[in-house]
Structure formats: C-alpha cells, structure tokens
Amino acid sequence: MGMYTGLRFKGIVKPEYREMIKEINDGADWSDFAEKFPFLTNYASLDRAEFIPRGSLAYMPDSWEEGKFPNQEATDGFERNIDLKTGYWTFQCSLKNYNQEMQQFFSEVLLEIIDSVDHIEYYYEEWARSKFYELKDGKIVNSDRKGILYGYEGEEENSYWGY
Q1: Alpha-carbon distances of 160 from 47, 103, 113, 126, rounded to whole Å
Q2: How far apart are alpha carbons 72 and 118 in whole angstroms?
Q3: What is the pTM of this model?
Q4: Given CB 3.0 to 4.6 Å as the disulfide criterion, which of 80, 97, 115, 130 pairs with 147?
Q5: C-alpha to C-alpha distance for 2 and 98, rounded to whole angstroms
Q6: Tens of pLDDT, residues 110-119
C-alpha cells in the first residue's frame, strides 16, 4: 500500500510564474510549462509530480480538513489558491514520496519560483510531529521552529531524508 507524506505551503510566487501556478492549481501539468521554463523538465517527468499541489489528503491529520467526504475543506488557510496580484500561494497535499518528489519540488521548482515563504510544513504519516522548513540564503532548509505534534508524545520521530 505505501505510506503518505503531506505538505502544507504558504508563500509568495514571483510575478512571472503566477499565471502558471494558477493553471496548475486548476489542473494543468507541470510538463505543460517545461518548454517555457526548462528548469521544470526534470521535476515534470516524475510520476507523481502532479500530486503537488493537487494530491488529496490521504492519512494526514484530521485537523488539516473539516467537513465530511466528499465535501471536506482545508483548514488554517491552506485552500489551493494563488492571488494573482500579490502572488500569495497556498496549498496542502499528500503523496507517496517514494522518489523524493517533495525534495525535488523544493530544490528544482520552489527555489526558482518563490520570492518568500511563510510556511512549509512536511509530515510523514507515521511521525508524531511534523517538520518545518524555511527559505534561507537561497536554499530550503530545516527550520528551528518545532513541528506540530499530531501523534502521541513518545512516538519515534525519524527523518528518512537529509533535507
């Protein structure tokens, strides 16, 4: 079956990428923009690339959504949206991160298209606590901010990748 990893994001997209993000939010594929933006080519070729930002929330904390299926809504302002005027992009998603799609998204896509970050939260379904990341010196790095406790205190917190 496999395990799921969730991502919650809030940040400012550079003006030249805002229309692309709107179209991706609305169902376009990253590969649709690879010719215009060649830095997307490698990421767009990944099997689960389209799950960011549109992957449904599977096995994520109940607090990430409210309502009953099929009418769940994102909580805490993480509805999939981009404000074309300000560039403020919000989303939450999950996917089976077997090929490090999220890490590649951070390094190959986010670093190219964002001006600033308010929130990057990463959560693996077996962890007790999420992890936060930030944009620092042109890189996405671990944040000093303590992750949110979604599981039970004392559950093992591990990291299977070195971001």
Answers
A1: 20, 12, 26, 12
A2: 24
A3: 0.89
A4: 130
A5: 9
A6: 999 999 999 9
